[in-house]
Amino acid sequence: MPAPSNGGRIYRNPTDGPVMVTRAASEFETQPIRWLEPGLIPRGKLTLLAGDPGLGKSFLTLDLAARLSVGKLPEEPSVPARSLILSAEDDPADTIRPRLETMGADLSRVSILEGVLRPEGKACRLARLDEDMQILANTVGRIRNLGLIVIDPISAYLGATDSHNNADVRSVLADLARLAAWTGAAVVCVTHLNKDQNNQKKAIYRAMGSLAFTAAARTVFSVSKHPDNPEKRVVSMVKNNIGQHAPSRVYRIDRGRVRWLDESCSLDADTIEGGSESVDQVTAVEEAERFLRELLKKGPVPASLANFEATTLGISDWALKRARRRMGVVAVKSTGQGRESPWTWRMAE
To answer: pLDDT for 153-171, tens place per residue?
Structure first.
């Protein structure tokens, strides 16, 4: 798997084992964030697009690929670029190509991954990110001027990876993030929302599977049905680690095309997906409690991982400590490793 670009720097290791590489911050050249879709989808980074089935998430990704293929993106200057589509749910012949044609795409600039062909094989199998990352890297390395990689849905390409295991998911997504950095392409992973029968979960916890999906992505946005008009859809920011939150936008599917509507929208993802609950109505401690419930529902986790995930999601140390006390979360030190034994957190019995 290729490493992110290091400006052509060549490292030499004089030892027989692996060594860690450090560089002074002054040696890195400052680079601006480049966007495919301003405030939503950055180039060279991992983005998560979440929403319930049937809301047009795939239309959004194909619309992006179509506009990219003919150089009709908001960035300046916008030049045509290529896309790679990994789609496990839509047929290329009767769904993906017709939609791209309707959207006015240059079909020669949109590639569709059919699968992985075994040596001397006659049939392709679905790509598996836990096994085929190097093959994927080799493939995208041969696509010139690649601007976008879509994986729809990400759950279909995890292979044997447990989608509810933070460590396993983070390992796969770390490779995808390196692929994005290496190619400079935006990597957009599509996912569904998990069920929230009580309408109490914040949007950041609604992505299906492990919290690592949301934590690893640099930007996360959701697609929701407009509460006042079932024909309209709302795209709203859930998380943005590298810029300001973009305002929510409204669109509709009109004759096979995505039509962005010029209307203001004050709704955010929490208001739509969480019923009556909005961001401002959730206290910091309640937020931390929900985080801990989601994190520990499968069993104990390393304390270092819990603290890291909380920091990634913007939960303060103070709120996390208060939530632990209120919920009775206990810290237990593992045995057998002396002073270096790691601590784990678990729910009190």
So the answer is: 999 999 988 888 888 888 8
**CA 285 – CA 237 distance, rounded (Å):** 22
Strand partners, 224: 234
List C-alpha distances in Å: 92 to 84, 126, 167. 12, 14, 33
Find out whether 234 and 250 touch, Cβ atoms under 8 Å.
Answer: yes
Two tokens, residue 252: 């509709």
Q: What is the pLDDT of residues 89-144, one digit of tens each?
A: 999 999 999 999 999 999 999 999 999 988 777 778 899 999 999 999 999 999 99
> Does 153 sit behind a cis peptide bond, omega within 30 degrees of 0 on the bond before it?
yes
Phi, psi for residue 93 in degrees, rounded to 5: -80, -45
253, 304: one domain = no
Domain boundaries, position 328: 284-347
Which of 281, 311, 333 lies at the terminal end of a domain, its last residue? 281
* 247 and 289 both lie in a single domain: no
8 A C-beta contact, residue 5 and residue 181: yes
Task: Count other Cβ atoms within 10 Å, centred on residue 343.
Answer: 13
In order of 73, 181, 303, the CA distances from 147 in angstroms are: 11, 11, 38
Distance from C-alpha of 157 to C-alpha of 187, rounded to nearest angstrom = 14
**Residue type for position 124:** C
